[in-house]
Amino acid sequence: MRIRRNGEDVTPSAPKLRQVLALLVLNANSLVSVDQLCEELWEDHPPLSALTTLQTYIYQLRRRLLLATGQHGAAFGSRPPHGCPAILTRVGGYELRLDDKQSVDAYRFDQLIEQGMAQLRTGAGEEEAARTLKAALSLWQGGALVDVSTGRRLSAWSTQLEERRKSVLEQRFSLELQLGRHHTVLDELSEAFRAHPTHEAFAGQLMRALHRCGRRPDALNTFRTLRSHLVEELGLEPSVQLQRLHQEVLADRGHLRGPAPAKAETVSGGRRLVPGPAQLPADVGDFVGRERELDQLETFLGADRPSTGMRVVEVHGPPGVGKSAFAVRAAHRLRPRFPDGQLFIDLSAVGEGSQQLADVLSACLTACGIQREKQPSGLGELSRLFRTWTADRRVLVVVDDALTASQIRAVLPGGSGCAVIATNRYRAHSLSTGRKIVLPALSPEESLQLYDRVAGERSRQEDPGAVQELIGLCEGLPLAIRAVAGRLTARPGWSAARLASRLRGNHRMLLELPAGTQSLMTTVAASHRHLPARSRELLRLLLQRERPRWSLDEVVTRLRPGSGDAETLLEYLVDVHLVQEHLTPDAELLYSVPRLTRQALILLSRGTPAGDVPNGRMVGAGVVAGTGVTLMKADVRR
Predict the structure, then answer these.
(1) Distances (CA, A) of 384 to 75, 387, 414
(2) Rounded Cα gap, residues 305 and 110, in angstroms
(3) Which of 184, 227, 301, 400 is 20 to 30 A from 87, alpha carbon to alpha carbon?
């Protein structure tokens, strides 16, 4: 670790100061809590004076690095000018503020990697990509944090950085071999293999380079060395790919003597240096609102900082609130940060029982370039293969319409540089990790804005009172607003007043108005379908009142004996977004069913079908030929 300011080395020499500073730098522009700092410094045995000692370390760092004096001799402790590095005291911890994160070589390293992969993906060519990756690797001047005492967190960081370095080395060597520069990289490959004698990718690349240089015996000796280390240290034989390469070198196959085809070079795990999948559905052009929630998601998933683990955001909300559209909008905003691919996994057919999760995951792997005949058959094996493929990649995965945490877990990528956005109908069935975002209904202003965008020019010609009535009937649900505005667009002779009059006298009409491939009835039916019997029984009780709210005592009194704990059942219905909680001024909880949801549930309880096709689904789209596996919905505006 070296810190320079205006060309002067100001690196602290005290081990604890270096440790604190390293943790702050690797989390630049983010809060590092006091608990995290204490754990790093003293693990499970902090001294009684830990907080005071930590404050002293922060004070010394500010003094040593001039982080609080600002420029032009501002007094110590004054607010540093914008653009000046500073250690800021935050609630619960500290933050190292760096306006230019590229002044940290670890961040510059990641930025150059993204640039190199983007050059390869956009057709700039292997030449430019190899040059950029070489520039990234030139930033390294030794092992990661080799001269810093490390606790649990910094040890994890250093391991991750070293693994990232090996991955980039592997990518760069592969590009150089594609360009026919086996002489140029031979010494570097030999050094990399000596440093990592069980790394199969380095061994295979070195064998290719030696064979192309006319050193076939040395190439064969590389294989023997690798096999010896694998057997002695791990009790393993070389992979099938390496054994095949060994046989090709023995047979002196001609295709090994020259540069490999540009898109045929592979590394361990069958990885190919080709552009990754880009499966995101088209963004919704008339998307409205959700800026706060989008910023929260983007800050968590797309923050430009190293990560100790893959990050997950689950999006929850009532039927028709626009979870899928929100996830797709967020994914498009994050797309540049995940250059190795974006996957869209639709689990709605799995929830309906018409498809198996293994089939959906197999289709996903096929999109990643892994042929079906080379894939295992079981879900567990498919999940492991997916984690392997994503282990060293930066991939964004959007999982839409999940029912359970196990479904999400089966399609989680394995790389710490990956991220997942999952839409989940049931908050109670979510993962225990990651962030949760609950989407509220749109405000009246946002609802009107969405209506105007969908209805277009005719919106300005309508009676404002009738439009307001229509929007009020939709209760801020984007699906309902789109359905109403879409119906008026499709019926030029209708007025907003006429449609409002029809909806007033026919509740079912609003519920069944389609917006794309969905209606409110179908999406409520999908949530209702998987409810346990006791939850359905309680819902029937709550539907007996038109609008009033229920107290817990009322529910307990009216619930049939033996039906289970009333409060637990109510909380479950709240978690699946079919019941709302209301807190009174006296801190009493009351429960109610939203009006539109209530009307749909009443129809469902009477046996009214939710659509014209089984399971309430209206259409299917995006089916892979010959497989029947749905990769995408035709419309994501639920």
Answers:
(1) 57, 5, 8
(2) 9
(3) 301
Residue 68, token pair as written in the block: 């609080």
Q: Are 359 and 629 in contact (CB under 8 A)?
A: yes
Residue 619's pLDDT is what? 33
Buried residues in 601-619 as b, exposed as e (16+ CB within 10 A): bbbbeeeeebbeeebbbbe
- pLDDT at residue 122, rounded to an integer: 67
pLDDT of res. 253: 63
Instruction: Tell me the Ramachandran region of residue 274: left when phi exceeds 0, alpha when psi lies from -120 to 50, beta otherwise.
Output: beta
Q: Point out which residues pair with 49 in neighbouring strands.
A: none
The answer to whether residues 201 and 218 touch, using CB atoms and an 8 Å cutoff, is no
Closest alpha carbon to 423 in 264, 281, 592, 258: 281
Q: What are the residues whose beta carbons fall under 8 Å from the beta carbon of 588, sequence distance 6 or more?
A: 551
How far from each other are the two terminal CA atoms of the chain, in whole angstroms?
50
Helix locations, 395-495, DSSP H: 405-410, 444-455, 464-474, 478-490
Instruction: Say how many C-beta atoms besides its own lie within 10 A of residue 210's C-beta.
Output: 22
Neighbours of 145 (CB within 10 A): 21
Give the C-alpha separation, 121 to 276, whole Å: 8
d(Cα 288, Cα 484) in Å, to the nearest integer?
Answer: 16
Give me the helices (H) in 391-430, please: 405-410
- What pLDDT is stored for residue 254 in this prediction? 52
Pull the structure tokens for residue 151: 């606790």
Exposure string of 505-515, with b = 16+ CB inside 10 Å and e = fewer, is eebeebbbbbb
Fill in the DSSP letter of residue 89: E
Give me the sign of the Cα torsion angle 219, 222, 224, 226: negative
Instruction: Flag whether the pTM goes above 0.85.
Output: no
Residue in 18, 17, 23, 101 with CA at minimum distance from that of residue 308: 23
Q: Parallel, antiparallel, or unpaired for β 342-346 and 396-402?
A: parallel
Q: Looking at the chain, how many residues does it have?
A: 638
Distance CA 3, CA 346 (A): 48
In whole angstroms, what is the distance from residue 63 CA to residue 272 CA? 49
Longest dimension (CA), the chain: 88
CB-based contact 64:10 (threshold 8 Å): yes
Low-confidence stretches of the chain (pLDDT beneath 50): 69-78, 255, 259-274, 610-638
CB 540 within 8 Å of CB 605: yes
The runs of H, that is alpha helices, within 337-378 are 348-352, 357-367
Identity of the amino acid at 334: L
Neighbouring residues of 142: CB distance < 8 A, sequence distance ≥ 6: none
Backbone angles phi, psi at 459, to 5 degrees: -60, -35
Question: Parallel, antiparallel, or unpaired for β 311-316 and 419-424?
Answer: parallel
**Distance in angstroms (rounded) separating the CA atoms of residues 438 and 315:** 6
Question: What are the E-state strand segments in 338-415?
Answer: 342-346, 396-402
Answer whether 316's CB lies under 8 Å from 323's CB.
yes
Give the C-alpha distances (Å, rounded to integers) separating 96 from 301, 302, 483.
Answer: 20, 18, 48
